[in-house]
Design a protein that fits this description.
The strands form five sheets. Strands 30-29-28-27-23-26-25-24-31 form a nine-stranded mixed β-sheet. It is α/β, with parallel strands linked by helices and 760 residues long. Helix 3 (61-74) crosses helix 4 (76-88). The radius of gyration is 30 Å and the shape is elongated. It folds into four domains: 2-151 and 339-369, Medium-chain alcohol dehydrogenases, catalytic domain (Quinone Oxidoreductase, Chain A, domain 1), CATH 3.90.180.10; 155-290, NAD(P)-binding Rossmann-like Domain (Rossmann fold, 3-Layer(aba) Sandwich); 396-516, Rossmann fold (3-Layer(aba) Sandwich); 518-664 and 685-710, Dihydrodipicolinate Reductase, domain 2 (2-Layer Sandwich), CATH 3.30.360.10. The longest helix is centred in the C-terminal third of the chain and has 18 residues, at 688-705. The relative contact order is 0.08. It has 25 helices and 31 strands.
């Protein structure tokens, strides 16, 4: 499909062919007919892209602070590489469109294929032939409203939210400062509600456009402008002033204070410098309010991405309801008088040139038109039995589902250095990431979707690097096709997902490796080698993970939270060190009993050989503290790993110490192990059964945190029990099969996976 892209490096516009997005849970797949170019927002984005690095820094000081923080954590060289990579990534543009629904994901009940809809959201409702938009950012288009006018709904919602914030009652006098697209729509919405608005702008073309549509409007330079506006209202001043301008000047806010009556409300809608002069704002006791984009729900991932509604009785005007209200009012808004210029999507570069250069008759509204013929093809169905896996005769072809920051920073660089592997295809949920990373890393092709890539058969190994909620599904499908698997942690977010993975693995015969990289870290491997065999251990694993912002995607309930998504790492490391089998796990949430919202947890794991592991995960710690600290004590040995930088071992009255340059956490060694597995070698650390055990312990801990854990009944599903070598539904301590019942102590390789455990 065609999509309009912006180069973050030089600000150039291109129209590229990229795979269409994939419909996911809670999303709506839309074939666009029109999308609206938001003149103010998108012009500013282009100007930032076209500026130098210094200019970009001046315009986005918030991002400069992020870069400096990253440099302190990762070093200057690594930060420079990250910045250059970001500049090389093309960006999508646009956030207001309309078209026809092609498909809907699970969890979408009120939108159906074939509906005409309007949609909003930066990163979703972009200038592209097909877009995937979360359900709460999509509304049906009423009969009688053409798609071209429906494409104005999102920008109209911005204007409407400003009006809501003003809380103007019928009969109120409202001034609008800034008559770009948002300002022009604000005037129309105010008139539709029966107000008598007045517009102000410094651009004579904008003022003329408002006047030609029947509005009262004045140029900023009008002599005695406050008095002129007041005379229009019979000597009264504004009950509310909406600032819809975009400028670094303080003038719009200063003017608002002059236009407003005593105790009026000034609403900041546009991107302006807010420095209210005391002379007017204090003496009039004015209220200053901000209007946040399309309305309540904006920037809340629980609303926008997870589909969580706000009760209408408490939040009557969410961003979705604002979108629907604008569409209801469209027939009476007179949008035709905006005289939007329409460009075919192929001519998008010309549209943006006009946006920047056409004066003095610069249009406030520009539309992109789409042919409406783009299709999403179904992947071929899997037929017959999968081929029996065997090591490839030449380079192992490696494909990737997902290619985000972690994959491109921590995995692909190490994998590319390994001989005997080549990159085959790559797929991503939105397509654009796959295109960019394909060029960067040398993948031979970009798959339209993960399903298309798997159906191609062009891979000896598939790396599952997508969001956590898709790991189990993709991992099981890869193995069912008889293809080798690398799955980044977690393997699954529930025991049912682990059951599917275990069943596929048991039947496949293909190598499988989970992304528990710390067991490959040189310090951890050296520690395990220093421990005596067959003796119980006491393991203490302390993690200063640091606080995540409340809107981080980890806290999306579909993604499982930090316990399932990251604490599983430390569970696996403990399981790798301990020779016995896990039999119980106890967990306490320090700040929450909800496993998704919990930032800090403490786990106690007991093992069949009397070993114990304590995992203290601090998710509220300040930046700057060393992250990970591992201590092990047993008969005659004590050891400590400090943030993978050093290992100290006390044994026989002597201390030995090893230092590891760069504090490696095992990513390079893990990728080397993957290459060796694909070449038919055996790798002790690549124990997939152990990965299943670690994943099951994490699932049990998550269930136990909410009080829903089933103590003594794990594993409860047949394939998982078979993979772990125990009886389904085993009681406390498990019910090992055969000779395992007689063993009191066993070696690590023999013990892991011989019995069940309980979660409390």
């Amino acid at each position: 499909m065609k999509a309009v892209l912006l180069s973050a490096r030089d600000g150039s516009i291109s129209v590229a062919e990229i795979p269409p997005p994939v419909v996911q849970w809670g999303t709506v797949l839309i074939r666009n007919t029109y999308s609206l170019i938001s003149a103010g927002t998108e012009r500013a984005t282009l100007e930032t892209g076209a500026s130098s690095l210094v200019g970009k820094a001046r315009q986005r000081p918030d991002q400069v602070r992020q870069v400096l923080n990253t440099a302190r954590q990762l070093g200057v060289v690594e930060t420079y590489r990250m910045v250059q990579d970001r500049l090389d990534r093309p960006m999508t543009l646009g956030y207001s469109c309309a078209g026809e629904v092609i498909a809907v994901g699970e969890g979408v009940g009120d939108i159906t294929p074939g509906m005409r809809v309007a949609a909003g959201g930066a990163g979703y409702a972009s200038h592209a032939e097909i877009v995937a938009v979360p359900r709460n950012l999509v509304v049906p288009v009423p009969d009688g409203v053409e798609d071209r006018w429906a494409a104005f709904a999102t920008v109209g919602a911005i204007a409407l939210q400003g009006i809501h914030q003003a809380e103007a009652v019928p009969g109120s006098r409202v001034a609008v400062i800034g008559l770009g697209l948002v300002g022009q729509l604000t005037l129309r919405l105010l008139r539709a509600y029966g107000y008598d608005p007045v517009g102000v702008d410094q651009d004579s073309a904008a003022v003329d456009a408002a006047r030609s549509s029947g509005f009262v409007a004045y140029r900023r330079e009008t002599e005695d402008l406050p008095g002129t506006v007041a005379r229009h209202w019979g000597g009264a001043r504004a009950d509310a002033v909406l600032v819809t301008a975009a400028t670094s000047s303080t003038d719009p806010v200063e003017l608002a204070g002059s236009l407003a009556r005593d105790r009026a409300t000034v609403v900041i809608v546009g991107d302006v410098k807010v420095a209210p002069p005391r002379a007017s704002y204090y003496h009039k006791e004015l209220s200053v309010r901000y209007s946040r984009s399309y309305g309540p729900g904006r920037y809340d991932p629980r609303f926008e991405e997870s589909g969580q509604e706000y009760p209408e009785g408490y939040v009557p005007w969410t961003e979705r309801r604002n979108l629907a209200e604008v569409l209801r009012l469209v027939p009476g808004l007179g949008l035709e008088s905006l005289d939007p210029r329409v460009f075919a999507v192929e001519d998008a570069a010309e549209a943006y040139r006009v946006l920047n250069t056409e004066r003095p008759r610069r249009r406030v509204a520009l539309l992109l038109r789409y042919p409406g013929t783009a299709e999403v093809t179904e992947p071929p169905r899997r037929q017959g039995k999968p081929a029996t896996w065997s090591p490839p005769a030449v380079d192992a072809r490696i494909a990737a589902i997902g290619a985000g920051n972690f994959a491109t920073k921590m995995l692909f660089p190490h994998l590319r250095r390994e001989r005997g592997v080549s990159f085959s295809w790559v797929a991503s949920a939105r397509g654009l990431t796959a295109v960019q990373q394909s060029r960067r890393w040398g993948f031979r092709s970009v798959a339209e979707s993960a399903e298309h890539g798997l159906a191609s058969g062009d891979a000896d190994c598939v790396m599952v690097l997508s969001r956590h909620d898709s790991h189990g599904r993709y991992a099981a499908e890869v193995l069912r096709r008889g293809v080798a698997l690398y799955c980044e942690k977690p393997l699954g977010l529930s025991e049912q997902e682990l059951e599917e993975v275990a069943a596929a693995w048991s039947r496949s015969g293909a190598p499988a490796l989970a992304g528990f990289n710390r067991r490959f870290a040189p310090a951890v491997r050296d520690l395990r080698a220093a421990l005596p065999e067959g003796v119980p251990l006491q393991v203490v694993y302390r993690v200063f993970a640091g606080r995540l912002p409340s809107d981080h995607w980890y806290f999306d309930h579909r993604q499982g939270g930090r316990l399932l998504g990251e604490v599983c790492h430390f569970i696996d490391t403990a399981n790798f060190l301990v020779p016995g089998r896990p039999v119980s796990v106890t967990v306490t949430g320090v700040d929450s009993r909800d496993p998704v919202s919990a930032q800090s947890v403490t786990l106690q794991i007991a093992y069949a050989d009397s070993s114990t592991a304590s995992i203290v995960y601090g998710g509220l710690t300040p930046p700057g503290a060393p992250k990970e600290f591992i201590e092990v004590a047993c008969d005659g040995v004590a050891a400590r790993i400090e943030d993978f930088e050093s290992l100290a071992v006390w044994k026989g009255g002597k201390k030995s110490e090893s230092v590891y340059r760069g504090a490696p956490k095992g990513h390079a060694e893990e990728m080397r192990a993957l290459r060796r597995l694909l070449q038919g070698e055996k790798v002790a650390e690549a124990d997939f059964r152990l990965a299943l055990w670690s994943s099951l312990v994490a699932c049990r801990a998550s269930a136990a945190l909410t009080g829903s854990g089933r103590a003594g009944t794990t594993p409860t599903t047949p394939a998982l029990a078979e993979a772990l070598g125990c009886t389904p539904g085993a009681g406390e301590g498990g019910k090992p099969r055969g000779a395992d019942r007689e063993r009191a102590q066993v070696t690590h390789e023999e013990a892991v996976g011989t019995t069940g455990f309980s979660g409390t």
